Amino acid sequence: MEESTGTAPDIGRGMQARTAERGNQVAQTVNESALKRNTRLQNKYRIGKVMSSGELSIVYKARHIESGSWCVIKEFFPQALARRDRDRRSVRCRVPGARAQFEEQRDIFAKEGPLLERLSHPCIVDYVDQFEEGGTVYLVTAYCPGMTLAQYIREGQAPSQARFYKETMLPIIDALEYIHRQGLIHRDIKPGNIIIDREGRPKLIDFGSAVHYEAGGRQPIFTTAGYSALELYSETARQDPTADIYSLAATLYFCLCGQPPLDVTQRLFRDQVEPIRQRSRGTTPLLARVVTKGLAINARKRPASLNPFRIALYAEHLKWALKERLQGQRLPDQAADQESMSRGGS
């Protein structure tokens, strides 16, 4: 198993065989269930390719017919309960006796649009539209060109370590703080839900699991192995911003170590994760400590705010910026020495 040496190309090196994003690969069965290309919705949108799928939805790239602009349309389509009607468009419950469950899930899905509509932040995907058609619900958001953070890390796309921490990770902290100030928690922070554009800037997507944490009450269970805090595995456990802090820490662990931490359900009797600096030797002790503390099973043992992450990430940025600057100064000197030696030997 490869170990990161702390140089810029090592962000994500050797992870092709180690990382799998659950729900981001489109299965053949989903393609058979998906809307056909060029299907029109509301006479406003034209469906394009399937981008991804999950247990409750199919996501399409689409065009706004009048403007020609790209957008993303998420269709409520619970794989275990739904089927297409004979028109190949309408969605029906296919399980006898599960109609109430189907409608409950549809109601939960329909909450994402109004929630997202009230958010406005440069690092959060923009809401466009939401509507009902053919017995299901469709959420339309802006199209974010780029790749997921998981792909970005796997393919080593970061131009430098210093820029990665400052321009990619620190803005995610800003977005999360903004979300929490609105009384919300995202509940599904992970590399697959962060899109990175060509400039390395992030966009947080998929608010289907988000809830108003101050409202209390029972919350639906949506979890991702390796990234979800223990309290997210319960409908009745108290959930607050520390759940997102856990998921942020797990995402940073993935960026540093090349794989997510051991799932929380497998650490119940021994609350430990593989030490970060054993796998990423270039990581500062400060960032390693903050991430490890963020992964505590007990929510009360995690950092109470995002400030420790901001400080640690900025310190990491400064360290790499200095190192890269010194390396940049040496490279021209080395080139000049080689040129001088070449002239002297002629």
What would you note in describing this structure?
The protein is of the alpha+beta class. It has two domains: about 35-140, Phosphorylase Kinase, domain 1; about 145-330, Transferase(Phosphotransferase), domain 1. Helix content is about 35%, strand content about 15%. The chain has nine helices and 13 strands. The strands form four sheets. Strands 1-2-3-4-8-7 form a six-stranded antiparallel beta sheet. Strands 9-11-12 form a three-stranded antiparallel beta sheet. Strand 7 and strand 8 form a beta hairpin. Helix 5 (about 160-180) runs antiparallel to helix 9 (about 305-345). The longest helix has about 40 residues, at about 305-345. The relative contact order is 0.11. Mean pLDDT is about 85; it is low at about 1-25, about 335-340 and about 340-345.
- Share in β-strands: 15-25%
Write down the domain tally: 2
SS summary, helix count: 9
Quote the CATH topology of the largest domain. Answer: Transferase(Phosphotransferase), domain 1
Low-pLDDT sequence parts: 1-27, 333-338, 340-346
Biggest sheet strand line-up: 1-2-3-4-8-7
The CATH architecture of the largest domain comes to Orthogonal Bundle
Write the layout of secondary structure elements.
Elements: H1 28-33, E1 40-41, E2 45-53, E3 57-64, E4 70-76, E5 82-84, E6 91-93, H2 99-109, H3 112-117, E7 127-133, E8 136-142, E9 147-148, H4 149-154, H5 161-181, E10 184-185, E11 194-196, E12 202-204, E13 211-212, H6 241-257, H7 276-279, H8 285-294, H9 307-344
Antiparallel strand pairs: 1-2, 2-3, 3-4, 4-8, 5-6, 7-8, 9-11, 10-13, 11-12
